[in-house]
């Protein structure tokens, strides 16, 4: 399995929603907590941590404040503790409908309430003491079986999902978590849902919905009958087993899904490592050897390309590009210049990567011409979820426009043509731009949008008129940003 930071476990962040549909919120002023917010944003995001005492208790840390939720003996609650003490320890009691009840471990009382009337003093569980878990982590990721150390992916020929891959390579390793009726569905890259019997179905029916449970920082998926998903048999087929308590076989890690791309050179051939260590544009089809994992360094914004053969692209003698490096270094970093539907790559020697007459790539050019330009195509996002600074992108109710500040998200479908993407939403309508920067989602004909991968995990989307899509105070998606930064960057 690739190392050196290629696959990072995601820190699971979430919101807690009470019975009235409001989110548990940690306020700056007085470190008070309330349940008044209608949507999941920064102040409503929490991280679950195991109790350092190795018991069954857990800690709730505010992602916003970096402080811990606590409950005193008289029921008063706050989020003030910089270090977890005795009053910060809670027991999570999952309920049959998927919600959680939170009980103070030292005091034995239940946490709940509404608005700013929260307390941890109830002796029994009522509707006011039940919380729905809403993941704040971006829902598109890789799923790693803890026991088998293998990744879950779609097996199209067997019509199943299985944990049998030693690396999350290709589009079939993308898993999208869909939030439905206080539960989660596992959606494959071809937009089907995993049922608890292992079948893949087109609709998120009740048998394809699971309650999320956390154990030692890992995820478990409990079906409607109280059994847990696990890899079964030699093939690692994913389905609900017999266990009614999650053990190691039933636990999974969520890992960040970096962009996987193919590049096409001016000779209309795919860049590949099929012929050996040389990176060359000499293939007519995109398969495993033509797919590269693209990672962007958060500080420099430069990127690396990792090949399926287990090596990073690296600059070698006389400007050659080989896929042989096992560690990230200055020579494996490339600066990406976004040139509309094409990209140019500048190596650490300050020169541009070009395609030589024999198809091999070399960083020997001082200027960008046709041989220095490449088409870069994202291949592991056939379906797309976008999140901005204020929330997820979702269809606005009763409108053909798009919200950018929602707690729930819509899944959009991508198609690709000549360096640009076409985006389809609910009902098959295409995204298009109108007057004054408006963006609509019910077009009959596709418009071309250019994706620019500007930061780790974030992209900018350039509309046909040259402006970038952004969120903002109105909560509507607009195409009127001049620069790809801030509200014009989207988690994908």
From TrEMBL:
One of its GO terms (biological process) is establishment or maintenance of cell polarity. Its main location: other. One of its GO terms (cellular component) is cytoplasm. It is found in: Cell projection, Stereocilium; Cytoplasm, Cytoskeleton. It comes from the Eukaryota. Residues 22-133, 142-254, 266-376, 390-492 form the Fascin-like domain. One of its GO terms (molecular function) is protein-macromolecule adaptor activity. Keywords: Actin-binding, Cell projection, Cytoplasm, Cytoskeleton. The keyword Metal-binding does not apply. Belongs to the fascin family. This is Fascin. It comes from Mustela putorius furo (European domestic ferret). The gene is FSCN2.
